[in-house]
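Exercise: predict the fold of this chain.
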Amino acid sequence: MTTPQSGQPGDSAESAQTGAHSVDPADRQSESFPRWWWRGMARYRPPGFGRSRLWRSPLRGPWLTSVFGAVLLVTLPAVTLTGLVSYIAYAPQFGQAIPVEVGWLRLPLFTWPTHPSWLYGLNQSVHVLLGLVLIPVVLAKLWSVIPKLFIWPQARSVAQVVERLSLLLLVGGVLFEIGTGVLNIQYDYVFGFSFYTAHYFGAWVFIAGFVVHVAIKLPRLITALRSRSLRGELRTSRAQTRPEPLDVDGLVAVRPDAPTVSRRGALGLVGSGSLLVAVLTVGQSIGGWARQFALLLPRGRSYGDGPNGFQINRTAEAALIGPRDVGAGWRLVLTGGPEPVKLDRAALLAMPQHTARLPIACVEGWMTTETWTGVRLRDLAALAGVAHPGSAYVRSLEAVGAFDRATLQPNQVRDPDSLLALRVNGADLSLDHGYPARVIVPALPGVHNTKWVRSIEFRSP
């Protein structure tokens, strides 16, 4: 066991002596401004700071912190990238991604493809699943560095001030993104603000902190990882576990307690927690028998019976749509050509029908693949008098809600599998699934597969 050394950070006795030391005016004149400033700050230590006896786990140290950091270094960019890609999938060029106005944080846009049809589902499954799986790792990383939060002064140089500010953005950003993301999965519009807007700008706060923090800490992370062998630590029992040498960051306890678990056990505990989260989440993406275990995505549970027994995020009741709205008087209105075209459901069923097996996926991470039957959107465009549509503006009967309309890109309108669906899995659509007609387009975000369609405006290029 390493013996305490004078001047090491985290030593409560040394910290107390440093805090009680007074700065002689003559010494101050001979010192540069930053140096006597930091020494002066050390004299006024707030209660609770510098008490290393609170953090005496022998597992804490640069190596374990760097292991968790390395995992997050690889995986958090994937979570961030898939989140930004999801924003692009909503086609911000049509002003329908939230937030609409993003200032200079505008992303490079591209036409979202329709194939492979499971592209959006895969993107969101990775985003949500990986974000949830990393929660135990994020918590373990925060546990490993908590002694640094109680060092005083919090910074001893301008470089450390920059590091602390980046850490504030990083930790605050990741906790906000995880917290709001989990709540959005569990509850329906629980926030008093726009989740999408907050999540978008929160992601950029995290990105800023992440980039700066990695630039500062990457050399130290690499050095720490090389200081010990992962294979060796996985073979080390609790009885053989020893503290790391004292470090300049104050992570290692000066007077550590006896270990209650090995580093191998700590890594196993965190890994098991992540595995459990994966088991309780992944079923909503892969479907089948695994879906019954997907307890962490309750808004993606199945509703309805028989052929319509799959996920519904928004019911007809929530959208204020009743039988009268979709009864015999319902008409689909097609515009964009010389004259509006009105069709009832019988006329739509009399048109050539096309069947496609397509997934539908939600921003919250669930995905389901069903067999849809209906009229091709490009056939409806031709009927409306627009042979080569540049886009399609779809309106819903829905009276309330943020997604009562959607604009489809040219490739989405013209794709042979893009449908105004009338039936699913061999049966008529249920009211909750969009009866009398709904849009279904390959690789399109679920909320833009508009339900209860009342009109489609086909626009020329």
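Check your answer against the key: Confidence is low (pLDDT under 50) at residues 1-31.
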